[in-house]
Amino acid sequence: MSNRLALETSPYLLQHATNPVDWYPWGEEAFARARAEDRPVLLSIGYSACHWCHVMAHESFEDERIATLMNALFVNIKVDREERPDVDSIYMQAVIAISGHGGWPMTVFLTPAGEPFFGGTYFPPVDRQGMRGFDYVLNAAATVYRDRRGEVTEAAAQLRRALEPAALPPGSVSAADLGVAATQLVAQTDMRHGGFGGAPKFPHAGALDFLLRRYHTTGDRRLLDAALVTLDHMDRGGIHDQVGGGFHRYAVDATWSIPHFEKMLYDNAQLAPVYLHAYQLTGDQRWRRVAEDTLDHAMRELRLPGGGFASSQDADSPGGEGSYFVWALAQLREVLGEEDGTLAARVFGVTDVGNFEGGTTVLSQPFPLVQVARSLDTDEAALRNRLDGIRARLLEARRQRAAPARDDKVLTAWNALMISALAEAGAALGRADYLDGARRGADFLLAALRPDGVLLRTWKDGSAKITGFLEDSAFFAEALITLYEACGDGTYLASARELVDDAVRRFEDGGVMYDTASDAEPLLVRPRTIDDNPVPAGQSILASALLRLAAFTGDAALRERAETILGPLAAAATRSPLAVSALASALDRAQAASREVAITGAPHDERTRSLLDVVHRRWTPNTVLAWGNADVELLADRPLVDGRPAAYVCENFACQRPVTEPEELAALLD
């Protein structure tokens, strides 16, 4: 028998549609019942790729005894955090304040007014390893609400006050010391194994990209080395799917060997550009291969028929956690034969003992490939070519296994990150398939998730819903600007301007940007996020988009709006760069001199393409590129030179003499 979640589109909510728990989706119906019956609310928040969410579901929400208790004591609400990052953000702050830590699954007990008074994360079904069982927690929360209402009311009021976003201090863009911020990140880098701090280790793509950005600006080799040591160990680690490409969510250990196996669209969309930028800065083909490997995985495994991208692949496989990805030595030899199986075991660190459950191994590259080639007395390129064939055979064999589930909902913000990555890489690497994927993705979002001019959050099975959040508008605007620079279609730039204007109008209040729109459902508080967790903060990306649009149009009001956003936050970038890396990068753009490149000429003229290639191949993070059919000030009065396509390199719209040869343009950019 199904509950109310059977009418939802979220795969996570649908996973709970047959629970014996009388679940409600988030909404007024549930709270109206709670008020009418003076009953507390149990709010459970998770997402479909979350391993421990599945564990708690199997142990507790599918258990008749516990479900009966939940139904008797509470009005039960289930939320997909990916659909409702606003709800997740508010109550995650509450759980951290209550328990000292957060995570998913998240379990929060609320008054009928939505005020939290107790909460935690995962609870086992019975007392276990120092944790109280869920049945005990349920009874305790209900008893406290019934018998100690005054204490509940006071605790809820205190938490509500604590959840209100603090007033922002005055500040200016110049207050951010980005040199200090970068030095802090270097100091936090594990120079032996890569990453920031100890286990568990997360990719922190934004921090790595900020280090590369500052290296580009300063030439300080320490910044590049700190970024590359992490990129190296992640590439060779078990967090990187050595067979199918793409990155898992995080590693549970300090050496990146054992991952939590979910693959998130947003991680791969953010990591691919970092590896691309490392390639553009160093010329090392290895980083290009990782970028392409990551995007190829997304195009193969996550792209949906309409052009959008699925949100994630599950952490759990039908055969058990990680079973889809791990290998035993005998399995390698069965698929590859004795000789290639032995080679694969040596390269990927597979032993009889294994490093995972049941004597299996999460594939990694414990030793750099050049070192393995030297030990085998062979050429690294020849070994790499042989490994490409081995990977292809392993991938084909792996496809015969029961695969992890895929969450097929399309999230606007996450898709925008992938559109940006594909557009930038498509232009930089000459990959027409990436550029086509970016255009199809953008066209899908514009048609399906902006049906009446208001951007929506999520789409699945033909249905788009939930008013979009600041991150949706900001990420998509930024993606459309990048896509315009890659393909020259001015309609994308025009749409970006519309999104930015709409975001400033609907998400700003009293000079402050909020995560939710003024016309969105009112919540306990109006959330405002400045940290990157795990995607960039919406206002940091909006500021970047405003600065880029200002450089295209010469509209000083756009730049002023960006500086109004960034100024009060500037000190945070110096103080906590790991938490606000997107903010640091936006401040870097704001502090740098604006450089503009305008290229005139027919888009399909080979001479035009040659000039474009000079720009696209380089990573020039604080430069904008105008070309094609956009109606922008930067292209106004930029004639051909003697009938030939020309490039104009400008700083704050003061342009140097136009050039017509690629070599001349390269000299100006370098």
From TrEMBL:
Gene3D superfamilies: 1.50.10.10, 1.50.10.20, Glutaredoxin. Signal peptide: none annotated. One of its GO terms (biological process) is carbohydrate metabolic process. SUPFAM superfamilies: Six-hairpin glycosidases, Thioredoxin-like. Residues 3-163 form the Spermatogenesis-associated protein 20-like TRX domain. PANTHER family: SPERMATOGENESIS-ASSOCIATED PROTEIN 20. This is Thioredoxin domain-containing protein. It comes from Candidatus Aeolococcus gillhamiae.
